[in-house]
Amino acid sequence: MKIKMKKFGVLLFAFLGLVSCSDDDDANVDPPFEGQSKSYDLTEVGESGVSGTATFDENEDGSVTITLDLDGTSEGVMHPAHIHFNSAAEGGEIALSLEPVDGDTGISETTVEMLDDKETEISFEDLMDFDGYINVHASADDLETLVAQTDIGGNALTGESVSYDLAEVDVEGVSGTATFYERENGETLVELDLEGTTEGNSHPAHIHMGSVEDAPGDIAITLTSVDGASGMSFTNVAMTDGTDDEEGTAVSYEDLIAYDGYINVHASADNLATLAAQGNIGANATEE
């Protein structure tokens, strides 16, 4: 009996040793790779009827796969697509060419490690901070026409926004809103949306210092002129206007929504004295 117990003890010890070695081996095995992923909404431009998503997937080798998945594309059409520098409101040169979107499937898939200059490496983390946007074009023969677009990286919107009323002043029937959208990088997309404007007209717009009640105040920030056909204007705001002798100062979304200012939208570049619409912003806005 004692001999059998002794043998059993030896076998048990050996088994435990094997289990212990197995556990040690498992501890040294790297966990399976789980890459990060980020998606952005691609919104239609004009009345193209094309929209969808742009998804960035991190790969184990450090490359990034960018997938465009669009609805509303047409069979037999290939839609060129690119990542550009800057925000969509500013416009910029092509940073990275993507595979064209196949109109039959609405899909484009591109795996990247470098920008088009073949010198600048680009990682998933770099793209998440990138100062850029995506354009999808109507065709290789019609690059002027955009069908879908989105800001990416640092230019993506956080979901925070504040809107201000722009009231009619000297031009009958023109009024609307100014909406400030916060970007991931702390900058601001300023959207002016007016009703009553006329195709063929262009309306200069500015953020002024002070309030409407204390006008006129100096121009602090020049905005993109409102297009009379659409009534829209989009401006990326990161700094105040500079002068011949001095650069502007950095201004964030948080600065703007607390700013002591107001917006003027003018009748035209030749008639700045006539105001189409006007409204207080930031600290001067009336809380409803």
TrEMBL record:
Gene3D superfamilies: Superoxide dismutase, copper/zinc binding domain. The keyword Membrane does not apply. One of its GO terms (biological process) is superoxide metabolic process. The keyword DNA-binding does not apply. Keywords: Signal. It comes from the Bacteria. GO terms for molecular function: metal ion binding. Residues 1-22 form the signal peptide. InterPro entries: CHRD, SOD-like_Cu/Zn_dom_sf. Residues 46-139 form the CHRD domain. PROSITE patterns: PROKAR_LIPOPROTEIN. Belongs to the Cu-Zn superoxide dismutase family. This is Secreted protein. It comes from Zunongwangia profunda (strain DSM 18752 / CCTCC AB 206139 / SM-A87).
